[in-house]
Amino acid sequence: MPAPQTPYEAVLHAARDVAKLDCALDAEMLGTALLGSVYAVAETDRATAVRDFVGQFLGATTRRRTAAATTIREVFARLVPDADGAATVRHGTTAPPWTEQLGRVHPTGCYAYGDVYGDQTSYLVTFAYEDTTAGGPDHAVVALVDHNIGITKDLYVGSSAERILGQVREMCGGDDLTWFREEDPGRLRHEVGRHLEITDQLSELPADGSLSTDRALAASRLALLPAPNTPPLHEPAGPELSAAERERLIRDFLASPEAVRFGLDAVHADDELASLHFCLSLITDHAAGLPDPDPLRWSPAVAGLFLLDWVHRRAVLDMDDAAMLPRVTRAWSAYATRRRGLPTAAAQQTDSVLEDMIPEFARLYATGERRSPATAAVAQLISEGVDPNDAEAIDAWIDNNRHRLRDDPS
Length: 410
Prior knowledge:
By secondary structure, this protein is of the alpha+beta class. It has 4 domains: 7-101, no CATH class; 105-222; 243-371, no CATH class; 374-407, no CATH class. It is 53% helix and 10% strand. The protein is built from 16 helices and 5 strands. Strands 4-3-2-1-5 form a 5-stranded antiparallel β-sheet, sandwiched between helices. Helix 10 packs across helix 12.
């Protein structure tokens, strides 16, 4: 058999057995998987790429009359109803009877669960078909929102809804560091949707999960939820702290029992005080760059991003700073978890993870392997006694080292 000549022929070939499936859900799962390939390879604005592809596919296959062609056209029109031509797709005379149930579902429950630190929230919606025989079993859409990177990181559609919901309840019920609640449908739709819009623009998608394959079906299901009528729990990030707010926060921290416990109240020497305040400025600067720029939203994940990645790429530490930073970070962790009222287990877990990170932090500091080129250049200047804030001194250094710069293979 000759290879398909166009993407539309390739889709028709992949969907050649769609009319032989047992129910609408099976067909919708096949359809969303096929559209997932388009979503995955799009370079920008992935949702628009899928919508445009569906519109072009419907236009290119108008005259196809096989059961498979008319059925997959109906499936795509239901999954992406805003595509060109979707509203005019008619029910095929040779299509299986279950096509009448495509998209005919209603939500039966909305829930949210996540970690107490605020790193991630998962949203779960259960659905049922009007006709469970022709439509298929009850099923659930699960969307994982990552608040540290500000995206909908994964989407999953699966059955049965009761089994999935039961597993989630059991998992959260046995873990003091997670929570579970019923969620307002509109708020759920808003939270997943606004983060998914950011995901759609990524040049590279998260590697794991079923985001691409389940995206079209999950989005079509969530579109059935009402518009939000209650305030979102996680508004888009506001501005970072003002200078005055930072100063008040740092003063409060330095007067806290956590600062005393880690001996930061006993820091008096000028060089140590300079390192202490520099380390605190790094913590607030790092928070300002997160989607949620709250320096008190601290967790093992945020600590890892800060101590094992961001600091090495963005800051130039001298030996005093490198010695001070782990102590300041552990004290800040304890302070932030207390201020947010997190359980004792959360504070203990974060401190334990931080303690385990310190040897790796020291190694990365010693090797400099994660320094950005700019940070490495500043570190080189400082090591040779050049003030990086002195433009004339930098110009003089460049003049004296032109041969090194010219011969440097990097």
